[in-house]
Amino acid sequence: MSLRTALPALCGYRRIRLTNSYVRSQKCSSYAHFQSCSADVNNIDSQNVKAITNTWIRRLQEESVPEADLSVKFITEHVLGKERTRDCDGKENDQNLTKEEARKINELCLQRLQRVPVQYIIGEWEFRYLTLKMMPPVFIPRPETEELVDVVAKHHSLADSKSDKFSFLEVGCGSGAICIKVMQRTIKCRMKRSQVFRNALCDDKAAQNSCLAFFILKFKDLIYFHSYFINFYLLDDASAFIAAATTCVAIDKNEVAVSLTRENANRCNVSDRIVLHRTDVRSVLPLLGSTKFDAIISNPPYIPEQDMALLQPEISRHEDAQALYGGRDGLDVVKDILRVSPAILKPNRLSSVWLEVDISHPELIDQWINSHDLGLKYSATFNDFTQRPRFCHIIRK
Ligand SMILES: C[S@@+](CC[C@H](N)C(=O)[O-])C[C@H]1O[C@@H](n2cnc3c(N)ncnc32)[C@H](O)[C@@H]1O
C-alpha cells in the first residue's frame, strides 16, 4: 500500500527529508490522556530556556510525538526569535526568560503534545525560500512539492524561451505555495547588453534586479544564487531572460485557502499577477471564458480511500480532509482536471498539465488518458527526492 510521503509536523523543513511519515503512530495520545499530561506540564515553572526545552522534548518523546526536539526548537525560536534562542542556549542556571515568555513556550508546546502540526502552531512555514503564512485547516505544503515547482520551472523556462510570457492555472492552491513560487521562478524577458548597463544605473528596483540577473547568467558556473526576486534556471544566451510577466489564475474550492493564498501573494509581492477564484475545478470553465493557459499545475487531493485511516493524527485531526481525500482510487480530482484541460490549454504541443500524485498513480493516469479521447498524451513521469514516481507531465496531442 502506498502512502503520501511527507508529514505535516515539520514537513516543509528543508534540512529534514522524512518519508512514509503519514503512517499513524502506534502510540497516539487520546484526549483524556492529553488532559492528564497538561496537568504535569503546567507545573513547568522554570524560567530557564534549557530546562524548559529539555523537559518538553522528553515529554513529547514519551508521547511519541514526531520530531520532538525540532518541534520544541521551532516553538522556542518563534517565541524568542532566533538570536535570543541562540544567546540563551546552553545557559543552564540563568533565569533567562520572562514569565510571559516561559508561559508562551509552555502553551505552544502543549498544543504540540495535542498533535497540532508545528506549522499551525507557529503560523508560518518555509517553502523554497518563501516564508508563507499557515492557517488551519489549509493544507501545509510538503517538501516534495518544492520539486514539482523545480520541474515545472525548468521545463517552461527552457521550452518557452522564445516567448516572453508564461501563464498557468493552478487547481487547488491551498496556501499559495505552488503558484507563488512558480511565478517567481519563471519570470523572464529578453534584454540587450546595452540595456543591462543602463538598468544598473537607474533607480528602478526591478531594472536593477534584471541587471544583477544578467551577471548571474554570465557567471552561472561560478556562482549559485538564490534571491527573493530572482530564482530561475539560467539560460545560455547573449540576452538575459528575466523579470517579466508570468501570470496565473489560482482556484480552490475552500474559501479559507483562497484568502490565505491572497495574503501570501501580497506578502510575496506577486498579487498583481495572480487572479483568484473560489470554485470547484468542475465549475471553472465559465469563469475562465476564452482565457487559455500554457500550463495547468496541481497538487490535488489524491489519497485513496483505504489509506485515509492510516494518516497521522497531525493530518487526520487538523488538516482539511477535502485537501487530502481523492476518492476510492485517489484519482477523482485528477480526472476532473484532465477532463477540463483540453478546453483550458493553449492549442500547441508545449501546453502541459503537471500533477503531483501518489506513487501508484502515474501508470493509472497513463492508462486512463489512453482510454479517453481528450486530445491529451501522457508525456513523462518525474521522481521525487526519494526516487519515487510522483510527478506527471501530460501534453496536448
Ligand atoms: C493537497 S492540497 C494542495 C495545496 C497546495 N497546492 C500545496 O501544494 O500546498 C489540495 C487543495 O485542493 C483543494 N481542492 C480539493 N478539491 C478541489 C476541487 N474539486 N476543486 C478545486 N480545489 C479543490 C483543497 O481545498 C486543497 O486546498
Task: Give a nutshell description of this structure.
One of its GO terms (molecular function) is nucleic acid binding. By secondary structure, the protein is an alpha/beta fold.
What is the distance, rounded to the nearest whole angstrom, between the alpha carbons of the first and last residues?
A: 33 Å
Low-pLDDT residue spans: 1-36, 220-244
Give the ligands present.
S-adenosylmethionine
Strand content: 5-15%
Content-based structural category:
alpha/beta
- What's the total number of strands? 11
Question: How helical, in percent, are the residues?
Answer: 40-55%
Strand order of the biggest β-sheet: 7-6-3-8-9-11-10
Descriptive keywords:
397 residues, alpha/beta, 7-stranded mixed beta sheet, two-stranded antiparallel ribbon, 16 helices, 11 strands, 42% helix, disordered N terminus, binds S-adenosylmethionine
Describe the structure.
- By secondary structure, this protein is α/β, with parallel strands linked by helices.
- It is 42% helix and 14% strand.
- The protein has 16 helices and eleven strands.
- The protein has helices at 31-41, 49-62, 68-80, 82-88, 99-113, 118-122, 143-159, 177-185, 193-201, 205-218, 255-267, 284-288, 305-308, 313-318, 332-344, 361-370; strands spanning 124-127, 130-133, 166-171, 190-191, 240-241, 246-252, 274-278, 295-298, 352-356, 376-383, 389-396.
- A seven-stranded mixed beta sheet has the order 7-6-3-8-9-11-10, with helices on both faces. A two-stranded antiparallel ribbon has the order 1-2. Strands 4-5 form a two-stranded antiparallel sheet.
- A hairpin with a 5-residue loop joins strand 10 and strand 11.
- Helix 2 runs parallel beside helix 5 (99-113).
- The longest helix has 17 residues, at 143-159.
- The protein is globular, with a radius of gyration of 23 Å.
- The relative contact order is 0.13.
- The chain binds S-adenosylmethionine.
- Residues 139, 141, 145, 171-175, 177-178, 251-254, 257, 280-281, 299-301, 320, 322-323, 333, 336 line the site of S-adenosylmethionine.
- This is tRNA (guanine(10)-N(2))-methyltransferase TRMT11.
- It holds the Pfam family PrmC_N.
- It comes from Desmophyllum pertusum.
- It catalyses: guanosine(10) in tRNA + S-adenosyl-L-methionine = N(2)-methylguanosine(10) in tRNA + S-adenosyl-L-homocysteine + H(+).
